[in-house]
Every structure is written in structure tokens, then in C-alpha cells.
Write a structure and sequence with these properties.
This protein is an alpha+beta fold. It has helices spanning 5-27, 31-47, 49-56, 62-76, 80-91, 98-113, 128-142, 173-187; strands at 115-122, 145-152, 160-164, 167-170. The chain starts with a helix and ends with a helix.
């Protein structure tokens, strides 16, 4: 069995729901609100083990998952397109693809806005000025607006790791030390 199969199945399922939700939200002119909802939903998934358990639990019935997701949608004030999409996903037992759905919708909204997302990992939190300068530099290199998603990883020691699509730029001190260590192994 191919190990990547479950992930590709989840991505395929998520892509179909994401396309439908995106098209409906675009038609209703609620993409900006949908984007805010996705950020809130993503944060809720990251923060709540209970929510992750609800969407992944095979023990909960379709009805129980539906009621739970409806309560969350009401409390978060989700746009009708997303609320209805999540209700359908619960009815079809597809809530387990929610993280993939959020990622797909984020990409579709960024594409619609002419943006590209960049994952930036740094040893210390970037200042506003550094983030703006990096976004401007990346825009000049890529030719599109860049939205930064910054994280901190102190093990980098210094420098940055920037991922834009399939491209990665690694200027971290950790990677330079690793390269030096490998070069020294080859010599000795």
C-alpha cells in the first residue's frame, strides 16, 4: 500500500468541498469574511484538543458531529457557505479533512487576491520592519504580493528559512554548521 494514499485521499476530498465553498462565498461576495473565519477556525483547531477529537472521532455519530460543528459555527459566526459546507461534511462523515479544507481554501483565497503565501521560520521573532522588508524583497523576486506566515524555531541559532511554494531558501546558521560538519567528515 502506498503510504501517501490516505493524505492524497484527504486532499482530494478537501479540494472538492473547498471549491464548492469558495465558489459560493465568491458569488455571495463574502471572501473577506470567509478568510477571517478560516483564520479563527485554524486557531481553534490548533488550540482545542476537544475540537480535534470531535472531527476525527469514529465513535461520534454523524448527528453528534453535526450538532457539535453547528454549535461551533454559531459561536464563531461562520459565513453561511462555510457553515453549510461543514454541516454537509459532518453528514457525510468527512470532518476529518477539515485541516486540509482550511489549507485549500486559504490557497484559493490567496490566489484570488493575487497573493502567494510564504512560510518563514526564524531564530527570533521578526519585527514589523523586518517582516515588511522580507515581504517586499520576496514580492520583487516572485512578482506577486506575499503574505508571511512567521514561526520561531530557536534551534536555527540565527538566520531564516523561507518556503514559498516548492522553493526553499535556507540561510540559517544551523544549516551552515551542518554543511561544515559534513564537509569536515568528507575530509577526515
Amino acid at each position: 500500500m502506498d503510504v501517501s494514499e490516505p493524505a492524497s485521499i484527504s486532499s482530494g476530498i478537501a479540494a472538492r468541498y473547498a471549491t464548492a465553498i469558495f465558489e459560493l462565498a465568491k458569488e455571495a461576495k463574502s471572501l473577506a469574511k470567509l478568510e477571517a473565519n478560516l483564520n479563527d477556525l485554524s486557531a481553534a483547531l490548533a488550540d482545542s484538543a476537544e475540537l480535534r477529537a470531535v472531527i476525527a472521532s469514529p465513535v461520534l455519530s454523524r448527528d453528534e458531529q453535526g450538532k457539535a460543528i453547528a454549535a461551533i459555527a454559531d459561536k464563531m459566526g461562520l459565513v453561511p457557505e462555510l457553515r453549510n459546507g461543514l454541516a454537509l461534511m459532518a453528514a457525510k462523515r468527512r470532518l476529518f479533512v477539515l485541516p486540509h479544507l482550511i489549507a485549500q481554501l486559504d490557497e484559493m483565497i490567496a490566489e484570488d487576491k493575487g497573493e502567494v503565501k510564504a512560510e518563514v521560520t526564524s531564530a527570533k521573532a521578526l519585527t514589523k520592519a523586518q517582516s515588511d522588508k522580507l515581504a517586499k524583497t520576496l514580492k520583487a523576486r516572485i512578482g506577486r504580493d506575499v503574505k508571511l506566515n512567521a514561526t520561531v524555531d530557536e534551534s536555527l541559532i540565527g538566520g531564516l528559512v523561507v518556503k514559498v511554494g516548492s522553493k526553499m531558501i535556507d540561510t540559517s546558521i544551523r544549516s551552515r554548521l551542518d554543511s561544515l560538519q559534513n564537509a569536515m567528515k568528507e575530509v577526515g
